[in-house]
Amino acid sequence: AALETINQLEPQLKSFLTVTTEQAMAQAKQVDAQLAAGEEIGLLAGIPIGIKDNLCTKGIRTTCGSQILNNFLPPYESTVTTKLAAAGAVMVGKTNLDEFAMGSSTENSAYQVTANPWDTARVPGGSSGGSAAAVAADECVVALGSDTGGSIRQPASFCGVVGLKPTYGLVSRYGLVAYASSLDQIGPFGRTVEDAALLLQAIAGYDPQDSTSLDVEIPDYTQALVPDLKGKRVGVIKETFGEGLDKVVAEAVEKAIEQLKELGAEIQEISCPRFRYGLPTYYVIAPSEASANLARYDGVKYGYRAEDAESLMSMYTQTRAQGFGTEVKRRIMIGTYALSSGYYDAYYLKAQKVRTLIKQDFEAAFESVDVLVSPTSPTTSFKAGEKTADPISMYLSDLMTIPVNLAGLPGLSLPCGFDAQGLPIGLQIIGNILREDQVLQTAYAYE
Ligand code: GLN
Fold first, then answer.
1. Are 358 and 351 in contact (CB under 8 A)?
2. ipTM of the assembly?
3. Within a domain: residue 213?
4. Pocket residue to mutate for ligand 1, from 52, 99, 100, 102, most atoms within 8 A of Cβ
5. Structural domain harbouring 74
6. What CATH number is given to the structural domain containing 60?
7. Would you tell me how many other CB atoms lie within 10 Å of the CB of residue 208?
8. Is the Cβ atom of 287 under 6 angstroms away from ligand 1?
9. How many Cα neighbours within 13 Å face the side chain of 79?
10. Active site residues
11. pTM to 2 decimal places
């Protein structure tokens, strides 16, 4: 059924870069055989899933939305997709994304622009826009994305689905193509909180192949799915309700907070005064890390290679000039500049210090509340092309999600209403380190 929906909708939606029909049918048949033989089946047996195309899948094209990986067939499998296969999930394809996960609209993909299923003239958000659109349009039941500054939560918000960025280190990133390594995290999309919780269950856990992986006990997340918020202390981040927030988004989120109160939550206003420095801090740290991570694409080991180069040096430069898109080049240049001697202290080191201050704001907040809430994004989905000429206005899309990555915290977006055009609005719920249970419980009770 998922493959049929994909066939029907893809000409318009363009959520997938690769559809893995044969493989999916073979995986589904395997589950059938297990059932017929009376064997035990996995947690996600037979569930169609979309995988963001920056996760390595052995022998299956993995492009990262970039020309530079146009012909890349990974020789190995990411830990998350290995775990999903073991849980019986059926991968139906690789989803579209902004090139190297840099963007907020999926328009930076070198291949295609994904449409928002609610209004195909609009963007699905980004960078995991393909995954969010695919789940929203029933092309798969759940999907994986990655979130460095909001790339799961903002598209979830724009497409009216649930998206969760777990605590930094909870999910192994072995086989995730790196963008900004101190921020990247893989997480689930689902149409319901329960679906997202089940997918998290299948992918969370320690992995010796990722040096940032946390060696912690993984709880049963479904235990957190109780529809009761009695005594739950919910903090509303004051600073997220200021300038730049659409009125209709503010109203929907305020209404959602009222509902949390009716469900028994104790609502408090919380100030995170350094929250507003999140965006500029991110746009120093993330490009710096990206400039180092993307140095490996040189045309030698794998990926695209410029053909007519006359020397090794010109092969490097032409490969990168031809293989990378505008936004990726912009970030490599910003990052290289910020890390260069003479500027390192003024930009990179300063940004790291501000990052610590932002983290301290959250630490102080979590002394008096269990979860924090805010809008996910200041606006609903915008029209394709509307912001492509103005990177700063595009960057503002992640104003409220970025601080969560800087602090390594879990954050979830779930639908909380619609604007006048019928476009979905997202509520962001943020938890303390490894308190995915609190986040899921709050979301589940509201939902
Ligand atoms: N939209 C942000 C950016 O452009 C965040 C991307 C992400 O989380 N991968 O960098």
1. no
2. 0.97
3. yes
4. 102
5. 2-224
6. 3.90.1300.10
7. 10
8. no
9. 20
10. 52, 127, 151
11. 0.98
